[in-house]
Amino acid sequence: MSDALPPSSEWQPGGETTGFPSPAHLWRERVLSLNDVLLCPEATYFVCVRGHAMRKAGISDHDLLVVDRSVPARNGSFVVAQVETTFVVRRLSLEGARMRLLSAHPSYPPIEVEPSVAIWGVVIYVLHATTPWSKQRLKETLPAPKPSSDPDL
Description:
Shape: elongated
Order of helices and strands: HEEEEEEEH
CATH topology of the domain at 37-141: Umud Fragment, subunit A
Number of helices: 2
Strand content: 25-35%
CATH superfamily of the domain at 37-141: Umud Fragment, subunit A
Strand order of the largest sheet: 1-2-7-3-4-5-6
CATH class of the domain at 37-141: Mainly Beta
Structural class: mainly beta
């Protein structure tokens, strides 16, 4: 038997106090469910970032990306793309008929989008761990990355 609450469970403040109920429940926000926030849960997946190519754009090593395949990629969107055998996170640049994937780091040149490049989805949220233990939890929970010659994701 698990001690975890089911996703639909809701804690009711004040129900188990031995004194008077906390007045904080009067200002309580509604319960947040990721399914309510995501545009299309069936087309959404999570990706852990490995590398520093997008750090100057606010996407850091070990951040967790929420990626939605149902969202159309537009100019300026952050996208997850497959370039040959490597997955990368980049900003999509559309200039006329020219499509490029741009890094936020000067060491990484732009990638011309050709038929061999596949856009796997648009980044709709970036979750950034703020404590050492939450970063460690992500490292322990997510599978280890496969070796790559260009660790950008």
